[in-house]
Amino acid sequence: MTSPLVLAADVETELVEKKSRFLTRSRTGSARSGRPTPCSRAARAEHPGARHHCTALVLEETAERAEVHRSNDDGEPSGTAGMPMLQSLLHADLVDVFAIVIRYFGGVKLGAGGLVRAYTAGVEQAVAAATPLRRTDLLEARIEVPPAEVGIAENAVRVWTASRGAAVEPTEYGARAAPLTVLVDPSDLEDLREDTARWSAGRRTVEVIGRRTADVPL
């Protein structure tokens, strides 16, 4: 199964359809709590003149709960707003995301089909404007280097991780060593070991110390 995507940051976009304004906000991070209500309340407080505040939520499965899908039409005809928004999030393979579309009615009725298209397009536009990250199960690997070699080691490791979509943690400085921690896909572990042996002339090795789920660039 393909690893899901998450948003790197919140995003807001606007769509106008037959004089109706559709403001879409896609939120990440706080969505993991499963409590989207504060986002809804904030949107209602900021846009009290809007006629509808429709929402959709996708939470990834955890040890404590199954995957969560929720949607709300907020007064729009049933199935014309929240569900199309939810389907757009699911089609984009996003998890831990909360979307709200704030609609200002423009005086022209869109009909059921027009509403579905508008709410779908609103979320798709926001997703297209966002920066996605891939949520992946990675190995936590450590490279022990003396403080005097940190500069060379950090540069080499960051160049390698940038080319692999991996991540390097902030360096931990100690009196005798400055371990570099790299989050790496299991399939790239041997390549990391070979690259480390190359830039260190065989003096440094890579030790796997655990596994971790992380959100990394595509």
Fill in the keyword field for this structure.
5-stranded antiparallel beta sheet; 218 residues; Alpha-Beta Plaits; 10 strands; Ribosomal Protein S5, domain 2; elongated; single chain; alpha+beta
Shape: elongated
Could you say how many structural domains there are in total? 2
- H/E topology pattern: EEEHEEHEHEHEEHE
- Helix tally equals 5
Describe the structure.
- This protein is of the alpha+beta class and 218 residues long.
- The protein has two domains: 5-130, Ribosomal Protein S5, domain 2, CATH 3.30.230; 134-217, Alpha-Beta Plaits (2-Layer Sandwich), CATH 3.30.70.
- The protein has helices at 37-46, 82-91, 111-129, 150-164, 189-199; strands spanning 5-7, 11-17, 20-28, 52-59, 68-72, 97-104, 132-143, 167-168, 180-184, 206-217.
- Strands 1, 7, 8, 9 and 10 form a five-stranded antiparallel beta sheet that branches.
- Helix 2 packs parallel to helix 3 (111-129) and helix 4 (150-164) runs antiparallel to helix 5.
- The radius of gyration is 23 Å and the shape is elongated.
- The model is unreliable at 30-34 (pLDDT under 50).
